[in-house]
Amino acid sequence: MPPVAVHFNGGVNLPDTETVLRTLVDRVPHGVRRLPDGEPGERAGWIGYQVPRLLATPGLERVEAQGDEGPYGRGPTVRLPTGTDADAIEWPDLGYATEYARSYTIFRRLRDEGVVPPGVRFQVEYPTPVAVGALVDPDGRDRFVRSYGRALTADLDRLLGEIPHDDVAVQWDAAIETVIVDRQPDTLTAMAGQLAALIDHVPDAAPAGLHLCYGDAGHVHMIEPESLAPQVALANAIAERTAPAWVSFTVPQYRDDEKFFAPLAELRTAPTTELYLALVPYHPDRQADGTTDRQVALVDRFLPAGRAWGICTECGMARAERADVPRLLDLHREILDRHQPAR
Question: What secondary structure does DSSP assign to 288-303, as a single string?
Fold first, then answer.
């Protein structure tokens, strides 16, 4: 079946939350179930948003950058010294709950004004503890991840104590886990268990989804996926433990071959899990004519029969040029409309 819905993975390079929300509903008027605040300001840098907080945390030490500069920086930012009790760290305000609570007031006002359609949820995005652990020296990283993870879920708990659960949805951004599983398949069980636990941490009334990603710093992946197989394997392993409300999958814009899409035939997620494939290209002018239509046909061919699915960009749109954002949003609508002629 053709794509029927749209998902936004988080960041949108527009000036502020109100502009983001108004622009999303204006340019993509159907197929939207959740709206993010666009992660404006510091949050546009994803885990980079946590760097100043880590540097200000007693018990962590700055690490001098090493190696060549690249899209993903020059190595760890901080380290947890040997002998430091990670459980004794007094974490600062991580910032997410504060920012999202502020954005939610805007979302609610726009809904009251009739701008945001009824039934659409306010979507918040959190990096996983493993993702933020990428900023930490490997020696001590595991201890950091366990301690920081408790602080991160406490931040989420605080937010969920301020926002009605039937108004909100939570996305866990799993770029690092996706890459780890791709590089080291023997980590699948451990990564799936950690991600399932994060999904289950969210109360049932607030849907929790998962973003499988290969990174988008400078629109460059951490590694290039050879096929959807690692993402499908991770989604299946998580589905054995819990049922995410949605999973969004990375699809490089140049891949329109059977090898890449064939693993979808092995997908075993719950029927209630929404599926989104990144068929909205960041650089449409660099994509060969007809690529998206071929991708749609391949998803339809290999996805288990009867599974509804939707479209998204690979990551958010925080790193897209601001002038390109309207065109990217229009592509969401155009792809849906082209494959739903009776709409």
Answer: PTTHHHHHHHHHHHHS
CATH number at residue 213: 3.20.20.210
d(CA 124, CA 170): 5
Q: CA-to-CA distance for 170 and 147, rounded, in angstroms?
A: 21
Q: Distance between CA 298 and CA 258 in Å, rounded? A: 7
The Cα 242–Cα 192 span in angstroms is 10
| Predicted pLDDT at 69 | 59
Domain count, the chain: 1
CA–CA separation, 144 and 40 (whole Å): 27
Cα dist from 276 to 63, 210, 248, whole Å? 38, 10, 4
> Within a 10 A sphere around the Cβ of 66, how many other Cβ atoms?
8
pLDDT at position 319: 87
> pLDDT tens for residues 283-327?
999 999 999 999 999 999 999 888 999 999 998 899 889 999 999
3-state secondary structure of 269: coil
Question: Dihedrals φ, ψ of 80, to 5°?
Answer: -100, 105
Tokens of 295: 């991708």
Report the candidate in 4, 7, 76 with the shortest Cα–Cα distance to residue 36.
7
Q: Collapsing DSSP states into helix, strand and coil, what is residue 311?
A: strand
pTM: predicted TM-score of the whole model, two decimal places: 0.94
DSSP strand pairing (121-127 vs 34-36): parallel
Structure tokens at 257: 């071959």
Domain residues for 259? 5-339
Dihedral angle of Cα 180, 216, 153, 40, to the nearest 10 degrees: 170
